[in-house]
Specification:
Blueprint (H helix, E strand, L loop, with lengths): L1 H11 L2 H12 L2 E2 H7 L5 H13 L3 E6 L2 E6 L2 H10 L1 H20 L7 E14 L3 H8 L19 E4 L6 E7 L2 E12 L3 E5 L8 E12 L2 E15 L2 H23 L1
Antiparallel strand pairs: 1-3, 2-3, 4-10, 5-6, 6-7, 7-8, 8-9, 9-10
Helix pairs in contact: 1-4, 3-4, 5-8
InterPro entries: ArsR-like_HTH (IPR011991), ASHA1/2-like_C (IPR013538), HTH_ArsR_DNA-bd_dom (IPR001845), START-like_dom_sf (IPR023393), WH-like_DNA-bd_sf (IPR036388), WH_DNA-bd_sf (IPR036390)
Protein name: ArsR family transcriptional regulator
GO molecular function: DNA binding; DNA-binding transcription factor activity
């Protein structure tokens, strides 16, 4: 953990790299697009900054057709938060951040809807074999998945059948429950793809993919989540933070301790 955090601190240590992360938080960009946004910085320097950000696992690169796009990966930042803020300071920190956001927005409507979409790309390294991670993601999801759609105060159970046509389901009675995902592609233990609203409502098309790559000492879990349609403004941020917590904290801790 110490070495990983050192690379994160190094990546955050330059103002241009922090500005690149601010840009990628809004939307993914190609290297050329980022270069255009920094007229006083050479393309070579931007590429060097991106390499350092990738080494810190703060940026992940995905190919789209003939282009490669850079995506923000906020999981290492979540790990830093967990280490130094923790559950005892969480409510205080959140209250202060919410106050600052309210002042900055000056009464803006954060629930405003728009017809657009978002794409979340995250990577988490887990010190466990790929088969073990895949089983935890699917058949053992009941043991670590905390988010619930059940009515407040009602107990629910999860099942995940990792086969084509299988479902990731939460049930709180024989005839009541919710589908978190419908499986449409499986190549175990390397990849599984699902369609699922994940708590979003209305005219939304949402899909998410888990890819598991073998890496020395463990498994690199790659998440891709795309959504389009009538999207509320806060949903992208909520889902990004939700995935960071589910995969980067709950799943990682579960797999590495069993």
């Amino acid at each position: 953990m110490g070495e990983e955090l050192s690379t994160v601190f190094k990546a955050l240590g330059h103002p241009t790299r922090r500005e690149i992360l601010d840009i990628l938080k809004v939307s993914p960009r190609t290297t050329g697009e980022l270069t255009d946004l920094f007229p006083d910085v050479t393309r070579y320097a931007i590429m060097k900054h991106l390499k350092i950000l990738q080494e810190g696992n703060l940026v992940v690169v995905r190919r789209e057709g003939k282009y490669k796009r850079n995506f923000l990966n906020a999981v290492p930042l979540q790990e830093m938060y967990n280490r130094w803020v923790g559950k005892y300071m969480q409510s205080t920190a959140s209250s202060l951040l919410n106050l600052r956001k309210a002042v900055q927005e000056k009464g803006g409507n954060k629930n405003m809807e728009s017809s657009k979409g978002f794409r979340i790309e995250q990577e988490i390294f887990i010190e466990a074999p790929r088969e073990k991670v895949f089983t935890a993601l699917t058949e053992q999801v009941e043991d670590w998945w905390e988010f619930r759609l059940a009515p407040k105060g009602v107990q629910s159970r999860f099942t995940f059948d990792p086969v084509p046509g299988g479902q990731f389901i939460e049930k709180w009675s024989e005839k009541e429950g919710a589908v978190w995902g419908n499986v449409y592609y499986v190549n175990a233990p390397e990849e599984i793809r699902l369609h699922g609203h994940l708590g979003m409502q209305g005219a939304v098309n949402s899909a998410y993919t888990y890819r598991l790559l073998e890496k020395e000492g463990g498994t690199l879990l790659q998440l891709s989540h795309t959504a389009s349609g009538v999207i509320q403004e806060q949903w992208e941020e909520e889902h990004s933070k939700g995935w960071q917590y589910l995969l980067g904290t709950l799943l990682k801790n579960y797999v590495e301790t069993i």
